[in-house]
Structure formats: C-alpha cells, structure tokens
From TrEMBL, chains A, B:
The keyword Ribosomal protein does not apply. SUPFAM superfamilies: Glutathione synthetase ATP-binding domain-like, NAD(P)-binding Rossmann-fold domains, Succinyl-CoA synthetase domains. Residues 460-479 are annotated as: Disordered. SMART domains: CoA_binding (SM00881). This is CoA-binding protein. It comes from the Bacteria. It holds the Pfam family Succ_CoA_lig. Residues 8-103 form the CoA-binding domain. Keywords: Tricarboxylic acid cycle.
Amino acid sequence: MTSSLQAALDPRSIAVIGASENPDKIGGRPLLYLSQFGFRGEVWPVNPRRDEVQGRRTVPRLSALSRAPELAIIAVPGEAAVAALDECAEIGVKVAIMMASGFGETADPAARAAERAMVARARARGLRMIGPNSQGLANFGTGAVASFSSMFLEVEPRDGPVGIVSQSGAMSVVPYGLLRGRGIGVRHTHATGNDADVTVCELAAAVAADPGLKLLLLYLESIPDPHHLAEAAAIARARGLPIVALKSGRTAAGQAAAQSHTGALANEDRLVDAFLEQHGIWRARDTTDLVAAAELYLKGWRPAGRRMVAISNSGATCVMAADAASQAGLDLAPLEEGTQARLRAILPSFAATRNPVDITAALMTNSALFSQILPVIAEDPSADAFLVGVPVAGRAYAVDDFGRDTAAFAQATGKPVVIVAPQELVAAPFRSRGLPVFSGEGEAVRALAQFIAHHERMAAAGERTPHPAPSSPSASPAPRLLDEAESLALLARAGIPVVRHRLCRTADEAVAAAAGIGGPVAVKGCSAGVAHKSELGLVHLGVDGEAAVRAAFEACRAGLAGAGHPFAGAIVAAMARGRRELMLGAHRDPFFGPVVVVGDGGKYVEAMPDVAVLLPPFSEAQVRRALDGLRLAPLIAGVRGEPPLAIEPYLAAAVAVGRLMVERPAIASLDVNPMMIGTAPGECLALDAVVFEEGSAP
Amino acid sequence: MTSSLQAALDPRSIAVIGASENPDKIGGRPLLYLSQFGFRGEVWPVNPRRDEVQGRRTVPRLSALSRAPELAIIAVPGEAAVAALDECAEIGVKVAIMMASGFGETADPAARAAERAMVARARARGLRMIGPNSQGLANFGTGAVASFSSMFLEVEPRDGPVGIVSQSGAMSVVPYGLLRGRGIGVRHTHATGNDADVTVCELAAAVAADPGLKLLLLYLESIPDPHHLAEAAAIARARGLPIVALKSGRTAAGQAAAQSHTGALANEDRLVDAFLEQHGIWRARDTTDLVAAAELYLKGWRPAGRRMVAISNSGATCVMAADAASQAGLDLAPLEEGTQARLRAILPSFAATRNPVDITAALMTNSALFSQILPVIAEDPSADAFLVGVPVAGRAYAVDDFGRDTAAFAQATGKPVVIVAPQELVAAPFRSRGLPVFSGEGEAVRALAQFIAHHERMAAAGERTPHPAPSSPSASPAPRLLDEAESLALLARAGIPVVRHRLCRTADEAVAAAAGIGGPVAVKGCSAGVAHKSELGLVHLGVDGEAAVRAAFEACRAGLAGAGHPFAGAIVAAMARGRRELMLGAHRDPFFGPVVVVGDGGKYVEAMPDVAVLLPPFSEAQVRRALDGLRLAPLIAGVRGEPPLAIEPYLAAAVAVGRLMVERPAIASLDVNPMMIGTAPGECLALDAVVFEEGSAP
C-alpha cells in the first residue's frame, strides 16, 4: 500500500490537467507552487488551448505524453474530471488528485453513484485516487506541492518535523498556519477530500513512515476504515511518533454538517474515543487544542511521571496552576524537606516553598532569586515536570536571565518544562531558548498533562495487534435470537461463569432439578425469539417446594402458549446471591467491529447509563481501568464499611466475551444482564443472557 | 460603605509613605505613575531622609501635613508599616493601601495576630485599609494610580469600559495586559491583597457603581463575605453590567496554595458555583477564559435566544462550529426553506444551505458570493446569533469586503456575530470594524454561548433579595439531634408532606395505631440522639397483625435499652408506596449560610452522589432546573414506558425546607432520606428525617 502512495508523497513527475496561466485559479495554483517551492521532478501542464502555461510548455492531452506521469492533478470540473481520471487510468498514472467537487459530498444520488463508479474503474486499472473534493497534497520536504490552498502564498513554508493529514482543505492548512506562526516547520500538509479511494487514514500510514517527523496531526470527519488508522498508529508507535487527531462530527449537528462537507459517514463518538485511546492516539477537541502541545512533542522529552512542581513570582499563578494540575490529573507532590529548607534560606520569609514555590513580588527588587532557586529545585528527585510562571515583569526584572537560567535548568534535569508568560517581553527570552511558552496557566498545564498522558497512552498501546480490516457485509437474514438455555450454554462454553441451571421439558424434570439445586429456585420459560420474559409472566423467582415449582412450570408453558411462542422448556436455576447487578454486553459496530460494553446493570441501564466500551482484544487490566472511570467505581472498592466487590471473575468474563466476539463472527450481539457480583469470587455469575446470532436456523 | 471607598477610587489627595526616588522600588513606582498618568489631586511624598523625591517636595512624616490626605499608600515594610497605619488612623486618613507583605498570608501566628490587631485599631478610628500584601489600586479614569505593578510601564494604559478587581496583584494586571493587547481600554485595575479589612467583593461593589463600565472582571481566591459580592452583583445587574469572576482555589491543591498566597479561607466549590449563578455572575475557568468574551460584552448586543447560524467557506469550520455549538448548548436551527432556496440560487450546487451555510472553496474564484448571501441570511427570522468563519483566505479573496459586509450585516440584524479567522490578514478587516474575532471555532462558539447564557443568568437573577450578612458564630453547645417524631413534626409544621404516623408509648397504643392506619405498617424505635436506627435493629418494615406489631414494639424498646438510649416510644407509620426514593437535605455553610441539597436518595448518596445545591431563597422552578441537570432527570420525565414522577410536591418541599432554614436559624442541619416520590402527588412523603438543632435541651 505504502509503495503505491509513494507517488502521492514523492512523485518523480507530475501532470496538471486543466493547467491555468492564472495562479489564482485551481489549475494555476499548483503550477505556481511547484515552481516556487523547488520541486525537482518533471512537470507537465495539460491544456488543449495553450502552448505554454506559466512559462512551461503544455501538452494538449494526457495521452500526448511519451510516458505516464507518476502523479496527475485533475483541476478540471465535473464530467471533464471524470474523463481525465479515466485517461489517467488508461495511460498508467499511479496516483491522481481529483480537486473537483460535486460528487459524494452532495445529496444527489447520481453524483454519488458517479463517484463510486469512477473509483471502481480506477482501481480496476491500478490507479489510486485522492479526492474528489480534495485541495491537494503538499510536501515541503520534496517541493511536491500539488495543492491549490491559498495558505502557502500567505505563510511561507519551512520544512520541519510536523506532518498534517486532513480530509478538509482548510484543516490541512489552518494548523500549518498556527504552527508556522510559532516558528515551527511543517513538512506535510495533505487534504484528501471525500476519501472515495485513498482515505485520510491510509495516507496517514504512508506519512507516518517518514523518518523526519516528530509529530503527526490528523483531521478526520469520519473513520470508515479503522484498520488503516490502526496501521498508521502502529507505524508511528514503533518509531515513537505521537499522533494527535481531531475527529469532528462528535455531535448529531456536527455529523449532519460533515455529511454535506465530505460525505462523511457518522461514527459513534464513544467508539472513536475508545479506538484512539487503544491505539495510542491523542484526541484533540478543536483546532487550538490540536496544536496546543506541539512544542512539547518536538522537544524530545520522555516524561517519567505525573508529579509537577510550579514555580512563580505570582501567588495567583501558583493557585491557578495547582487547580489546573489537579483537574488535569497531575500531582503537586511537596518538595523534599531538605529542598524546602534550602529554598527558605534564599527566599523571603513570606514566600511559599512546599510546591508551588512562590517567589513573591520580592522578585521585582531582587531578580537573582529566580536564578538561585532553580539549581536547588533541579536536584530534588520528587518532580517529573515543571511549570515556571512569570505572569508580570518589566524593566526592573532580569527577564533575559530568567530565560537563560530556565533553559539551563531544563537541560540539567532533562524533564519537561512549560512556561507561563502572557507578556511578550517576558515570553521572548524563554521562547528564544526553545522552551514552550503559554499565555495562561490553564493552557500550560493542560498541554503538559496531555503530553504526559499521551506518552502513557502510547506506552500502554505497545505492540497492539492491528485492527482487522472490515469483512464484507453478511448477506444472511436478520439475526436469530437464541433461547436462554442456548445463550447460557454459549457463555459457559466461552468460559463465563453461569448460574447453576437445568432446562426442563416436563414438570417432573423441573421438580427434580429444583430438588437437586436445593432451596428456592428461579423458574423461567424458555423459547427462542423471546427477549423480554418478564412481560409475558415467564419469570418466577424464589420458587420454593414441589407444588410451587409445578405451578411455575405450568405458568411458563401457558404464558408462552398464550403469546404464540414455542415452548422449549423451563429453566430451573439457583437463586443467585450477590451485591450488585452489573451488565456485560457486546455488539458489532459497522466500522469498529466487535465492541464490548461493561458497567452497571439494572433496569435503567439505557436511561442512566454508567458503562464503558472496549474494543477487543483487551486485557483484564484494561477492563479494570474502564470500570475505575465509572460512577460505580467506589462501590467496587467498597463504601460505607462494605467489603469490596470480588470483581476479578467479571474482568475475566469481559475478556472472554471480547474473545468470543472476535472468534465467532456469527454472534451479532450478546447481553448478559444481570451479571451478579458478590464479595466472593464464586458469586460472579451470569443470570440471564440475550444472544442474537446470524446464520441458518438451529 | 461606598462613600468611604470613594477615597480609594477617586481621592483628592494622596500621601506616599516610604516615597522613593527609584521608580523601580515599591515606594517609587506609585509616585512615577501619579505623575505619568495625570493625577490631578495633591500628592505628598513622605520620607524623613530626603527633601525631595522624584521632583516633589517631601514631608518627613505624615503628622507634619497641615491636613490629612484622603488616601495613603504605605510602601514601608513590617513594623514600620504597622506604625504608619496607626499614624494614618490618628490624623484622619480615609483609606490606606498597605503594600507590605508578611502578615495574614504567612503561617506565623504572630504575624496573623498583628494583622487582626492593626485592622481593629484602624476600624475603631474610621480608617479603611486595603491589604496588607496589596499591589495597590489603579484608576485610569482619574489618574489615581496607587500601584507598584510593573505592567503599566510595559503596556500603555487607556481609559475604557472595563474594571478589574482582584485579590492578586498579578491577576489585576494580567487581564489588563491581555485586553490592552486587543485594543480594549481598561479603567480600573485594583489588587486588594490579603483583604484583612476591605475585601475584593466590597471594593467590587464600589467599582460596580461606576457608570462608565460595561464589563467588570473579578479575581477571587476566597469569598469570605458573600453579602458584599451579592451587593456588587445587585448594583451591576441594576445597570445591566455583566460580571465575570475567576474564583481560584477550586481544588484542594489550589486552596492550599491560596492559603499561603493571600491567607484565603477555603470555600466549598459547588457552593461558589451556585452562589455566582444565583447572583447572575459568570464564572471563568482560567485567565484566558476571564477575558475570552470581552469584545462581545462591549458591543452592547442583547441576545434574544440560542439559535446560531454558522457561515463559512470551509466545510470543516461548519462541522466544528456545529459540534461546538451542540456541546455549548446552542441550537443549529435550519434556515427557513425560502432562505435556503435563495441561497441555492447564489451558491454552487455542492454548497450547503441548511445551516451551517458552506460557501465552499468556490469563494476563492468568486469573492462576491460572501457579499451576496449575507443580506439573504439577514432577513431570516430563525437566527439569534451568527458565526462567520473564514479559516483560510489570501490574495485571491476580497477580505476587506468580507469585513465591511459582515459589519453591515451585524448592524442590520442587531444580533451578535462572532468571527473565526486564524490568519491575521483575514482577521484585520473584521477587527477594524469592531467585530469580535477568534482564532478557532471552539473559542468563538464558547464565547458566544457564554455571552448568551450570561444574559439569561442575569435576567433570571433579576431583583434577587440581597444575601444576608453572616451572623456572629453562635456560642451554643454542639447541636442536638432531635428524635424522629420531633423531626417529622417539625417538617409537617413547615408544610412538608410527611408519612402518616403516630408516636406510641405502649404496645397497646402501637396496636391501635396500626389498626387505624390499616395493612402492614412500619414500626421504628424513637430516641433523640440516634441517627442510625437500622444498625440498632430499630426499624421493622411491613409489620402485619397485632402480634407482629407488639413484637416489633418490644424489639424497639429492647434495642434502645441495650444501646443505652432513652426510649421515647415507637413510631408506627404507614408503609409508603412510591417509585423512587429521593433525598432532601439542608445545612449551614460558614460562608454562604443555609444550603439545600436536592437529588437522588438511597444508600449510596455519599459514595455516588447525584445531587445539586441551592441557596435559599429559591423558587420551585429553580429546584426543577437543578433536578433537570441531574443524572436521574430521565427517571423524573419517565423512561421505558413508565409514567413521569409526580415531582411537584417535592419541588414545594424543597422550597419549604429553604424557607425553614432561613426562618429558623437554630436548625443546624436537616436530612430527609428518603423522600418517597410516586406517580401520584399524594405519594410524595417524607419517610424519615434527621434534624440537628442548636439551643437548650427540649
């Protein structure tokens, strides 16, 4: 795959179909850029009406070329664009960038069908297409700038360690503009448009292989092909390359807008979160967020933990940094007592030395305080990262020394440092030494926390198995609902603890089963196709004694008969003891495949959900972390003097369900509700299950 | 009060005690500023060792002046500062600004005691003090800049419609710097320090009376005096002046840092939220947030609703604006069909016209599209506010026309407009026409949503009764726990529906009571001082028949006797029917006074709280809004085919509890748990209550 996209990123020759003399036209802009930004391969403008365009000789049509260009830019609209794509396929172009709009992003079925058809014809002949509705690709490492974006006229490019791959044209260059404005070089800024053939994720995998990158930014309106993104993430993680992704269309309103922008299909947003986390990708909330921590990534720091020390000449900065750190999950561990004693010897008596360290306004009359405390703090082992805030300073302050000494401090400790300096005169001496500067405590702390958490996430993702490519949609009829006995048997075979039970065909069998189990039992009518047993009077709990068992058995038989369902028997089951009913479910997402849902059970699981999603394969530790994030976490740990819940068998059961969903593609969905949890491991039992399975009738 | 602080904001004469020739010293800076920024009153430097300081004749000591200055700046440290304050009180200074540090913000008990003592002496003689640990006050309307901040050397002041009142020195000028950098004029930037006498809230009330202000910003590390803030808010609301407050110390770490910064006492953060909301004050999260919507406030727009229309040449901006709007609670209502038809006649076929309106990249080749669609959209009544995003443009675009036409559009509609323009060349023509420009969709939408929601909040606060000043702490012994019968009687008298019950002294009485109630009853042992009845076996539910009632009665008597508690009798109560157990509680906060807590009840109310706090007085509508924000809101509305809960009597009960707490200061706390709620109004009943009351034994 990567080899075929090599021609998109680093082509040896480029044809521009619809080449224009006017560099402000879509067909003129790429020609200008190819000249301006030093592309060294061959460039062939295609224009049947002019001999020369922007000082280059044209050919009248693609077929007039002696050999096929590796990359073709299709800058003509509508029908002409479709014809040009076919011509590219004909002569053996490797990759075509289709800039024309008006295909899959419209509501017009004919335009959407035309898009599908042209992709099919191109693929059949080995041509890969970027677009349609693409602003183009730009590689400032090679000068292959096949884009009509206005941005590169306004903000001068500089090759650098950042790559941006985006579905949207604007969002390929807005982050570029923000980063360039901060002096950061950007190599790749690619916009894939409708992703009708090559997707943003597939291109991201090719870009992630560029060894010159230290940060990869993605803008996605849809993830129809998670396996490509998983591959990009795996390539990136193998090299320690962080990926930050802005996936828009989080909300119904956003999804509707995305549909008419790039024809994007809606993803379930919590699955996007889960998928990105599992593959070590950080999710940005918006454009500002996408580039907020860029300087931190580019420094090459390896954060060792979450303990932050804040240092400022302003108490308010100390307070706000402490608030922001707590809220972002960073610890403000106190400095060691010896360190504090040494700081007290330097600072005025009313300064704070525990952490945060408040130099106080005394810095105004003695700038040396700043330089004196840093070496002391540098020697303290109880810090993983630092925030240095100088919210106000001026001519009375040795601000250049502050920058110099902080840079030396960062060098000495090797630990991440963020600077808060809203005044430009204060920011400059820090920034000029390569330190990340922010205008507020909140921004600085959140960027630092993201940087640290992202490293943890990448480490946790490790060498994750690649995500499977989607299988073609099954042609089988609507999934069949198994009866409860079949469902429980399926769970038991998968290694999930199931309540002791027996399927009984006769009342005598039921009585015998109840006697074998002992004590009161549950008696439940069993029939495939019945999902809501209670509503048909098929659930009898605490049934005690032969007569009661017989009565319950007959009630089940009558209930099913009355509702017109076949009677497969009655399940006689032990009454489960336990403390809390959890749920454990699974289904298949059309994009992300098997999804396991863990969390609190009970009647209101849809109305007041307290659940988390996991994408298999996952470990018991991941299930535990997911539960730790839920509202019911305190119950699991034990509250009000109650013992903790014995949750381990549930963790194992969740992993087993994930495995089952991967190994048995015929299972459409599965819901264990309740999964009873007690304070002893043996109390973890599936009490009921609803399983839908595809395939032939039993 | 305001009159005494008039001398702080607009003094006719100022003495500087500890006046220095060096303008980079604390005693030199204010003298420089008073000259530089055009203060027209009298200025008297006090310095016993020099005849002249910064070109002004000095006096050797304050008492050498022929008459007292209205304002004195105390720029000497420690003991000398204390002596100077006493001297100010002696000669009749109205307000003193104490810049010295090392008092209440330290951990030193002697320093804290010294602060309390000097405040007491000053107050006794009618002197008001700002500080200690104050950076000073600055009023650019009058030139009374009694501050040693470095900021005013670096960023030129300009009088304008913004006031900033802050405990912290840095946070009085950081917002100033950010606003001035955006061209906004600032009149007041005051830093009150330790608030030992005049508090930031008291000074805010004085500043809020300035008719020149359109926006008031506060930075608070503690709110020990909510009544002053309530007064400031009332003054502001009466004039339509919005207040945005940054209250730091949200977290334990932040509170600890605030303690050593300004000696701030910790407030319970959810009460801060509730208090600010009730008084129409917007709460900012951090410094950036504090000034984020400033331009919107200064425009004088009056938003009529929450329907936002987004317009952009970028589909991605449309998608991200839609996401951000949904997440911020703004609606993306579709434009009217007629409007859409007119837009379709202007825009290319692949453009989106519903809302968001996506002009598409066609704008690059036809800038007139922008100007053509605005008048069409202006006529559509289904919009309350607009977002216009031009994330990328350049030389091919008529960006100046965009700015001009959008300004005309804003003028024509009178509705709020926010602009997203990360490129400076695009931002400039909008900004120069006075439109609020943001660099990202998230920032723009959040500022707009804040502006709209803040107006709603101010309108809802209306003419709220001022918050009562705190009463002096009671000297009574620890509050007494009433017994259940007393507690239920107290609730019933307050108009709260209580379960039908009778306190029975003998088993015969209990039997008679049970017979009178009919059906199974609850029998509960009753004794003052017993909060957890279940644990002593004092709760018997579903007791049916004479024998069972007798047995339960005797068990209660025995249980209390066994635990050494007096036996006040047994309560025989009806068994309540209902659907959900809510809780309804109240207590007294040392700062905010009576607090009512509403929400979900049950065993895990502490471990998994789903509650909201309200500060009385409040209305039933406010209780309903509070419940609407809770997790259990769907249950109240009715889920899974269940009928809605009959919540009205609960709303009334919550209001009654609030009234009770205001009217009966002796009630220390009150907990109704459970308050049963059913689907019929009569099912709303208090089943049990725990009330603590101060005062003498019964």
